[in-house]
Design brief:
The complex is a heterodimer of chains A (about 325) and B (about 290). Chain A contains ten helices and 18 strands. With about 325 residues, chain A is α/β, with parallel strands linked by helices. Chain A has a single domain, classed as Aldolase class I (TIM Barrel), CATH 3.20.20. In chain A, helix 6 crosses helix 7 and helix 8 crosses helix 10. The radius of gyration of chain B is 18 Å and the shape is globular. Chain B has a domain of about 110 residues: Translation factors (Elongation Factor Tu (Ef-tu), domain 3), CATH 2.40.30. Classes of the chains: A alpha/beta (about 325), B alpha/beta (about 290). The complex binds flavin-adenine dinucleotide, flavin mononucleotide and FE2/S2 (inorganic) cluster.
Chain lengths: ~325, ~290
């Protein structure tokens, strides 16, 4: 499978080795159905703001894409602080989708994002299907949007969020409704907090999704033993970071088995080695979230590390690696 | 006249660099001072700004930690930055173990500095390890010839009062247990100064850093007085860079004003850490 890598160096780009001989650069470009990305490494929603926050702006250059903070129809205040609690090799968050709302996003955020020269995937959230539809309708046609990621998996909003996560028909209903108002590619971002992620993946694929992002955060809880209260004012939160990586990887494998549309892997990826595990299991792209908080250049480091690995393995393209998991059955 | 701290004045762009620990020693039990060597293109930093610092152990994944800058100066071949920190949890204990030569990734200077009002006398309040940024402000004010500052310096007990070897202005210590200086909190000390006519509304301005509890008390005390009050606040940071929305602090909304729900919280790493005490909705601020 995936044997469509260009065979000669012309397409792959040429660089010079130290001894002066031409070495083909591995092709990092990936296609996910209708979406073509310069490389398979994106930032995860809610972990890079709207792309304009990271002050040095160095983190995003050379990335495969930026997934924006989830945008909703109306501006949202989010949850009361504290919203963050660090856990072993991870963190709990209960941001609650604080965001400027779609109208301000269109005027204040999108133009700058679109000018970065990196594909922009706009994450869209809502409490009801109609809110997703109206948000996408307003975004639809604005220049600079490569695809939408439909967030049917936020654990931190009381209304709707959990139902969309866990009831396959509810998630599919949102995708189906949004599908009617846009021709842009749609990825559905799924929750790992389900018994069978494959079932939800199949439902959204049948409803017209062009890809699935696997996955959002795992519901978690930490308690202050002295006050007997949660460490987060909202009660439980979403667990992210290296702590969830093996869990997320297994969910990605489930999704790859369940659907034929592209799967985007997400959860705890910090290094190129981590990302390669997801690609080998069959993800066609990966997203980096929490790792960017520790090092805003983490995602770029992953791109460089993937390229170095491909060279070391003598592979001409990342496509040649995707889905090469040798599973014992 | 230009403002010294300068909300309006430009701040240096933040850079991510490798900081090398030059020295790291306790100032009082549990409170340490680290001197970090940075490359020369870094900074300059203004009083009230902070850095995001990677803390040992590096092999365990962890978020970076925010620390206020206690001092920043150009030295031969680079820039020297000081931080003063309490060893309170895993990362700050890890930092306390860092030996000279250890390399740590650092981003900064970040955030809004104190915005000193030159037309008013500066009354600075530093509670516990919160002394560091206000001491830097005191030094800054001295250098800029707005020297009429007074520094109120509080701690639980005498042994916790961080020594100030070469004070840039008058210093008045206070301890909760009365073991050194004024007996009471810094707000009690302010009240007594006010009673004695040593603190003048319309003439003085307050700049403070310390535990959130102390800052909340100070905000309440100064609310009905003509004493502008800037505080350097703390909350849990995910990134320190405006990317995660984790550092929300609730702010008051003007009655009747049309504000979007988004404006109910500000991101402290961007709009702070120094904020106008009266802008904060203290009821929603956690310890
Ligand atoms: C703008 C700013 C400036 C600061 N300046 C200083 C300073 O100059 N000196 C100093 O000693 N401390 C300062 N702090 C607080 C310092 O960042 C915390 O004490 C430190 O993060 C605790 O880390 P830890 O792993 O040792 O503790 P942990 O074991 O993680 O927790 C101990 C306590 O620290 C707090 N905390 C935990 N995680 C974070 C986090 N990510 N960000 C902030 N607080 C957290 C919690 O309240 C917790 O109860 C500042 C905080 C902010 C927001
Ligand atoms: C602070 C924070 C905010 C997040 N906000 C969103 C969001 O708005 N929309 C969304 O779909 N996912 C959001 N996520 C989930 C991430 O996009 C990602 O799915 C998750 O963190 C797992 O990846 P990671 O372990 O690499 O962080 C957020 C995660 C964090 C830590
Ligand atoms: S700490 Fe991440 S936005 Fe402020």
């Amino acid at each position: 499978m995936n044997g469509d890598a260009p065979a000669n160096g012309a397409d792959a780009g040429i660089s010079r080795s130290m001894s002066g001989e031409a070495v083909p650069r591995p092709v990092l470009k990936v296609s996910l159905g209708p979406v073509s990305l310069p490389n398979p490494v994106l930032t995860a929603s809610g972990t890079f703001g709207y792309g304009d926050e990271e002050p040095e702006l160095t983190g995003m250059l050379g990335l495969g894409g930026i997934v924006t903070k989830t945008v909703t129809l109306e501006p949202r205040a989010g949850n009361a602080p504290p919203r963050i609690w660090e856990t072993p090799a991870g963190m709990l968050n209960s941001i609650g989708l604080q965001n400027v709302g779609v109208d301000r996003f269109l005027t204040e955020k999108l133009p700058a994002l679109a000018s970065l020269g990196v594909p922009v995937i706009v994450s869209v959230g809502g409490r009801r299907a109609e809110e997703y539809v109206e948000t996408v309708r307003r975004l639809q046609g604005a220049p600079g949007i490569t695809a939408f990621e439909i967030n049917v998996s936020c654990p931190n909003v009381k209304e709707g969020g959990l139902e969309f996560c866990q009831v396959p028909s509810a998630a599919a209903g949102v995708v189906e409704a949004v599908r009617k108002v846009t021709r842009l590619p749609l990825w559905a971002k799924l929750s790992p907090n389900v018994t069978s992620l494959g079932t939800v993946a199949r439902a959204v694929a049948e409803a017209g999704a062009d890809g699935v992002t696997v996955a959002n955060t795992f519901v978690g809880l930490c308690i202050d033993i002295r006050t007997r209260r949660s460490r987060l004012s909202a009660g439980s939160g979403g667990l992210s970071g290296p702590a969830i990586r093996p869990l997320a990887l297994a969910r990605v494998r489930d999704a790859v088995r369940a659907v034929t549309i592209p799967v985007v892997g997400c959860g705890g990826i910090t290094t190129a080695e981590d990302a390669l595990e997801f690609l080998i299991v069959g993800a066609r792209a990966v997203q980096i979230g929490t790792a960017s908080f520790r090092d805003p250049r983490a995602a770029r480091g992953v791109v460089e590390g993937i390229e170095a690995f491909l060279r070391a393995e003598g592979l001409t393209s990342v496509e040649a690696l995707i889905g090469t998991y040798r599973e014992e059955v | 006249m230009t403002r010294v701290g300068g909300l309006a004045a430009s701040v240096a762009p933040p850079r991510t660099v490798i900081a090398r620990v030059e020295s790291n020693r306790p100032l009082v039990p549990g409170i340490f001072e680290a001197v970090l060597a940075l490359p020369s293109e870094w900074g300059p930093a203004r009083p009230g700004q902070f850095v995001q610092l990677e803390c040992p152990p590096p092999e365990l994944f962890g978020l970076r930690r925010p620390f206020s800058i206690a001092g920043c100066r150009a030295v031969v071949g680079g820039v020297e930055v000081r931080i003063v920190y309490g060893a309170v949890g895993m990362r700050t204990h890890g930092l306390a173990q860092a030996l000279p030569g250890v390399a740590l990734r650092l981003t900064g200077p970040l955030g809004r500095p104190f915005d000193a009002m030159p037309e008013r006398r500066a009354v600075l309040l530093g509670g516990g390890r919160g002394l560091a940024p206000v001491l830097m402000l005191a030094e800054h004010l001295g250098r800029n010839a707005h020297g009429a500052a007074i520094l109120l310096h509080g701690a639980r007990t005498a042994s916790q009062l961080i020594p100030i070897p070469d004070p840039p202005c008058e210093v008045r210590p206070a301890t909760d247990d009365g073991s050194a200086g004024f007996h009471g909190t810094l707000v009690d000390l302010l009240q007594s100064m006010s009673d004695a006519g040593e603190l003048l509304e319309g003439r003085d301005a307050l700049y403070a850093c310390g535990p959130n509890r102390m800052l909340a008390a100070l905000a309440a005390w100064s609310a009905e007085r003509d004493l502008p009050c800037q505080v350097s606040l703390e909350t849990h940071f995910g990134c320190g860079l405006g990317m995660c929305a984790g550092c929300a602090v609730p702010v008051k909304t003007t009655a009747g004003a049309e504000v979007s729900a988004f404006e109910r919280f500000v991101f402290l790493c961007r709009e702070g850490p120094v904020m106008d005490a009266q802008r904060i909705d203290w009821a929603g601020v956690h310890e």
